[in-house]
Every structure is written in structure tokens, then in C-alpha cells.
Design goal:
The protein is mainly alpha-helical and 234 residues long. It has 2 domains: 1-72, no CATH class; 95-234. It has 13 helices and no strands. The chain has helices at 3-10, 16-24, 36-46, 50-58, 62-71, 79-88, 91-104, 108-115, 121-137, 145-158, 164-180, 185-195, 212-221. α8 (108-115) runs antiparallel to α9 and α9 (121-137) packs parallel to α11. The mean pLDDT is 97.
């Protein structure tokens, strides 16, 4: 299977109506408008393929780039691969596909801490999203809790001055820490309370920005605090 063959396979699956939805969420051309459920059928067939994932991402076609993240063998991803992916990403890929794959790679924490210091909005946002993915999939014993506390403090001090994409993923980080790290649940709630509501431009979408403390309490109410995910990908 080659990237060219997959492009030929997925192009007819696209629709103009779904393409418009994707554009409202920050996707840019070239894009076919293929729904995720269709891409996941291909993922189920291919499973993991490191080189094919790289080739698909390099096509620059959004749908192929999203599929690349689904089939990427995260354990084989190099730091150079991750840096290239985040550099090429649009808003819909940087904070999601790239972050998911980075978190599953051997370099997740390393690149996340580099990216959050970037002066490029999408890169910094990807860094915070990678940190969120890391706390979601790694056992607490594998996490640096003092470092996470410092990062929560950094979010509290800087979130309202940060660019839009960075604010969005900083808010997500507070939620992720509170939801997935039992020991830091209360601190995350306190941090969210001190931050207050976060204003994020969601463009031409019906998306709403969650208030971190309320979101974490809902997770607590259903008894899911600290329950890890097998993968950050979805």
C-alpha cells in the first residue's frame, strides 16, 4: 500500500458538506472532506505503518495527514519526525493528531516542553496538548508531579495573555491534569477557579469552552478520576 493508492481510495469518500465543517474547525486546503469513521476503516485494515504514515503526512492533504496520525507507529517516531509534523500542521492537526502521536513517542515530554516555549501559536498549542495527552495515557508513577504543579502555576499566570490556540490547549491541560491525575485533582480545580472563565474564539462553530472546575467535577461525579486511556488518539 502506498500513499498515492490511499489518496486515490479516500478522495471519492469526501463530501463538500463535511469539508465545510472541517474548514470551520481550522482545516485548510487541500482537503477532501472525508469523515473520520471512513478513515478509521482504513486504519483497521492497515493497523500501524511507520513509513506509510510519514508518506501520507507529507502529501499535505488534510485527510491523509489525519490518517497518518491514526496509523503512525508512535514508538518509531523520531524527534525529527515530530518537529517536521508540527511545522507542517494546521490548527486542526497541531493540537490533536500531532499531539497524540508525540505523546505516544519516546520524545513526548521532551518535545512538549520545547514546544510550549515556542513563539509560534500552533506549536505552543501543540505542546500543551501533548502534555494533556501524556497525563491521559501515562500512569501517575511515570509522571513528574512537581513539574505538573509548576505547569499548572504557569497556566494560571499566563493563560489570559496567551494566543487563542494556546489558551484553548492550556485550558485543556488543566482539565486533563484534574481528570487523569488523582493526586492533582484538587489543585487543578483550584487552578481553574483562580483562572476563571477562559475566552476562546471558536470561529464559526457551536463549540463551547468548558470551565475547567465544572468539567473535572463532572468526571469525578461519574467516578472516572484517574482512569487512564489506552491511547490519546481518537
Amino acid at each position: 500500500m502506498t500513499a498515492k493508492r490511499i489518496l486515490e481510495e479516500i478522495k471519492p469518500l469526501g463530501s463538500l458538506s463535511y469539508k465545510k465543517v472541517l474548514f470551520n474547525h481550522g482545516v485548510t486546503e487541500p482537503c477532501y472532506g472525508v469523515k473520520v469513521e471512513e478513515l478509521k476503516k482504513i486504519q483497521k485494515r492497515i493497523k500501524k505503518d511507520y513509513q506509510l504514515a510519514l508518506d501520507l503526512y507529507d502529501t499535505g492533504v488534510y485527510d491523509a495527514m489525519y490518517l497518518a496520525g491514526l496509523i503512525a507507529d508512535d514508538a518509531q517516531m523520531t524527534k525529527k519526525d515530530l518537529q517536521r509534523w508540527v511545522k507542517q500542521a494546521n490548527p486542526a492537526l497541531a493540537g490533536f493528531t500531532v499531539a497524540w502521536v508525540a505523546a505516544g513517542s519516546p520524545y513526548g515530554r521532551e518535545v512538549a516542553l520545547e514546544w510550549i516555549d515556542s513563539d509560534k501559536e500552533l506549536v505552543a498549542g501543540a505542546g500543551w496538548s501533548t502534555l494533556s495527552s501524556l497525563v491521559a495515557v501515562k500512569e501517575d508513577a511515570e509522571l513528574n508531579l512537581p513539574e505538573l504543579k509548576q505547569l499548572l502555576q504557569r497556566v494560571q499566570q499566563t493563560i489570559h495573555q496567551a494566543p487563542n490556540e494556546v489558551r484553548k490547549h492550556m485550558n485543556g491541560f488543566v482539565i486533563a491534569v484534574g481528570s487523569y491525575v488523582q493526586e492533582l485533582k484538587n489543585l487543578a480545580i483550584q487552578t481553574g477557579e483562580r483562572i476563571g472563565p477562559v475566552t476562546i474564539d471558536v470561529g464559526n462553530t457551536a463549540c463551547q469552552t468548558p470551565f475547567a472546575p465544572d468539567y473535572i467535577r463532572k468526571v469525578e461525579k461519574r467516578g472516572s478520576i484517574g482512569k487512564k486511556r489506552k491511547t490519546a488518539k481518537c
